UniProtKB/TrEMBL annotation:
Protein name in the entry: Triosephosphate isomerase
PROSITE patterns found in the cross-reference section: TIM_1, TIM_2
Catalytic site positions: H95, E167
Role according to the record: Involved in the gluconeogenesis. Catalyzes stereospecifically the conversion of dihydroxyacetone phosphate (DHAP) to D-glyceraldehyde-3-phosphate (G3P).
PANTHER family per UniProt: TRIOSEPHOSPHATE ISOMERASE
Record: residues binding substrate: N9, W10, K11, G173, S212, G233, G234
A Pfam family reported for this protein in Swiss-Prot or TrEMBL: TIM
Keyword annotations: Cytoplasm, Gluconeogenesis, Glycolysis, Isomerase
Enzyme class: isomerase
Subunit architecture: Homodimer.
The UniProt record lists the keyword Cytoplasm: yes
Species lineage: Bacteria, Pseudomonadati, Pseudomonadota, Gammaproteobacteria, Pseudomonadales
Amino acid sequence: MRRPLVAGNWKMHGTRTSVAELLSGLLDACRNCRAEVAVMPSLVHLEQVFQALEGSEVVLGAQNCAVEPGQGALTGEVSASQLLDFSCTYVLVGHSERRQLLGEDDQQVVRKFSAVQSCGITPILCVGETLAERESDQTLNVVLGQVSAVLDALGVQAFSRAVVAYEPVWAIGTGLTATADQAQQVHAAIRQHVAAFDADVAEKLRILYGGSVKSTNAVELFAMPDIDGGLVGGASLNADEFGAICRAAGN
Ligand code: 13P
């Protein structure tokens, strides 16, 4: 049985004041949740969130890290080992905003994935197609290609300590959500692809859906057999809304 995971990706949002408010509402809203809950603040708020989460069941994650796991001379970057110092449980790698807007390629994604794992942290590998790719029937080619980049470089066992997040680029921040059937189809294809290398790893692999997840569509999405929770952007900035999504994943 895969325990559902709901991760709130706060992206580049928040001030110390708004983060404090969000945290107090969220800790209330997520109490006794059956799903595992993670929050991923902007790095400037990591210490604040780390302290606020102490003693709670909500775990901490980061949105990105450097390609090398250790500390070093790399201005402006943060290494996975530094994230471990804050007990980060998860780190996102290959989010589409970084792939599309910052030119992150599969090779960098593989290095970050490996850096995260080498520090004992679980990477959440983000994959997803653009609207043009979906409209030209390239969805599975693109998504499975992004998964394969890691599989080929690091082997299938790397997925026994990882999470995958399917986030169609056209559904992120747009209010457009993949239908539950559309998402399920891609999630099943990802699982099958991994199963071709190792059925047990594939069966245990959690695959999250991301892209305009809200309390109103979460129940239907999370009811799908291969959707094991969500990676939530905008709706994770509202404690009540995020709490409702977490409860939807726990049911
Ligand atoms: P939204 O939920 O705002 O569409 O963002 C999804 C996302 O990118 C999470 O990583």
